[in-house]
């Protein structure tokens, strides 16, 4: 019987599966035909990149010839043997010179002292690390607006930043100018680019129902139903705990939402049976939408199953978890809910933020008939025939 042994080795920080076999007639030729296999001069063996699926496919391929396959070395190696060998990438700030590192630490402490959120501190400090690397050993007192403008132009161009990232970059530099005395800089002259006033994408009520019906997994359907029915941000959904759900009062408590504000949002009656079913089935310990390890579910996982559900429902629009929040607000306004109440439910600090939905939910404007429809309806042709004209060549769709 031909014996083939499979084992692992690390090459350039990557796991490879080594294929050893007893020399026999036709064995080598058969193994060489396996898709993606290659010969390693360094290790003197046939090999392929390792994955669980790759192991299964290789095993199946070899068993077609009734070869005896020994992969005990892979089982004993554990699930992630390469992690011990992977070199951790050093943070970019560690590449700074000694003086620049001191500036970086002072700036970070300044931002934290301003009580900015951890994510904002991380974004701003990353920008300033890029700036300190850009100026090199040049003293801060010699930095001027022209140098900063060159830095901004280069970074925005090289990184292909969006307008929002560009605005964050300018904000980071303005904070930097507040902390350090930069005699050559006029912070007020640093202008942020104007925001692109993009109208939110909104799903219709029919599309919302189709989306939920297309989501077979109970946990996934519960998550999407909560995002829409309560108008939640994805971070608010993932931070929800069992104690935040008040089934008796039909309320959901949002703790430390955006802007460090607590608020209560409504719980739809149609969601109550779904929540009961979910809680009995999954019995989450702490977080309402719980991950496999008992921690909070990840945002990436939500986006992933939402994308699949949209595809299954035949929705062609570009949909994100925030689209469900946009849809919630728009549908409330179309139902005649007071703007102030919508603002409170969404947790907006300024009414101007909520006003964006009035551009989508223009109920009266949507009822205005297009002059083309009037023209077609009244048959404005050569003989002014009042019969309805067809613009589709006889196809009424």
Automatic annotation (TrEMBL):
InterPro entries: DNA_brk_join_enz, Integrase-like_cat_sf, Integrase_catalytic, Integrase_recombinase_N, Integrase_SAM-like_N, Tyrosine_recombinase_XerCD. Keywords: DNA integration, DNA recombination, DNA-binding. GO terms for molecular function: DNA binding. GO terms for biological process: DNA integration; DNA recombination. The keyword Hydrolase does not apply. It holds the Pfam family Phage_integrase. PROSITE patterns: TYR_RECOMBINASE. Residues 198-370 form the Tyr recombinase domain. SUPFAM superfamilies: DNA breaking-rejoining enzymes. It comes from the Bacteria. Belongs to the 'phage' integrase family. This is Integrase. It comes from Muriicola soli.
């Amino acid at each position: 019987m031909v014996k083939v042994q499979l084992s692992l080795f690390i090459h350039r920080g990557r796991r490879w599966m080594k294929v050893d076999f007893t020399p026999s007639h036709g064995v080598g030729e058969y193994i060489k035909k396996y898709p993606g296999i290659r010969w390693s001069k360094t290790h003197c063996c046939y090999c392929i990149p390792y994955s669980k699926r790759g192991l299964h496919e290789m095993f199946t391929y070899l068993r077609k010839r009734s070869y005896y396959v020994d992969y005990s070395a892979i089982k004993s190696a554990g699930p992630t043997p390469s992690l011990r060998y992977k070199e951790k990438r050093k943070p970019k700030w560690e590449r700074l010179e000694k003086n620049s590192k001191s500036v970086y630490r002072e700036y970070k402490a300044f931002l934290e002292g301003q009580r900015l959120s951890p994510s904002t501190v991380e974004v701003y400090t990353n920008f300033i690390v890029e700036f300190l690397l850009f100026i090199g050993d040049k003293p801060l007192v010699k930095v001027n607006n022209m140098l900063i403008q060159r830095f901004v132009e280069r970074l925005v161009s090289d990184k292909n930043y969006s307008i929002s990232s560009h605005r964050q970059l300018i904000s980071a530099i303005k904070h930097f100018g507040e902390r350090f005395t930069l005699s050559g800089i006029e912070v007020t002259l640093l202008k942020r680019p104007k925001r692109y006033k993009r109208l939110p994408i909104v799903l219709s009520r029919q599309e919302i129902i189709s989306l939920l019906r297309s989501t077979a997994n109970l946990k996934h359907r519960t998550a999407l139903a909560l995002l829409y029915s309560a108008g939640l941000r994805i971070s608010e959904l993932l931070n929800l705990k069992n104690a935040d759900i008040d089934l008796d009062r039909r309320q959901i408590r949002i703790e430390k939402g955006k802007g460090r504000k607590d608020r209560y949002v409504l719980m739809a009656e149609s969601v109550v049976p779904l929540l009961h079913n979910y809680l009995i089935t999954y019995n989450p310990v702490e977080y309402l939408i719980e991950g496999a390890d008992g921690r909070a579910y990840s945002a990436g996982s939500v986006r992933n199953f939402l994308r699949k559900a949209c595809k299954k429902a035949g929705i062609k629009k570009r949909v994100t978890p925030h689209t469900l929040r946009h849809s919630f607000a728009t549908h409330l306004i179309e139902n005649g809910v007071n703007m102030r109440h919508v603002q409170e439910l969404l947790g907006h600090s300024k009414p101007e933020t909520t006003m964006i939905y009035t551009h989508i939910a223009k109920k009266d404007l949507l009822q205005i008939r297009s002059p083309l429809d009037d023209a077609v309806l009244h048959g404005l042709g050569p003989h002014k025939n009042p019969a309805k004209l067809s613009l589709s060549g006889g196809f009424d769709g």
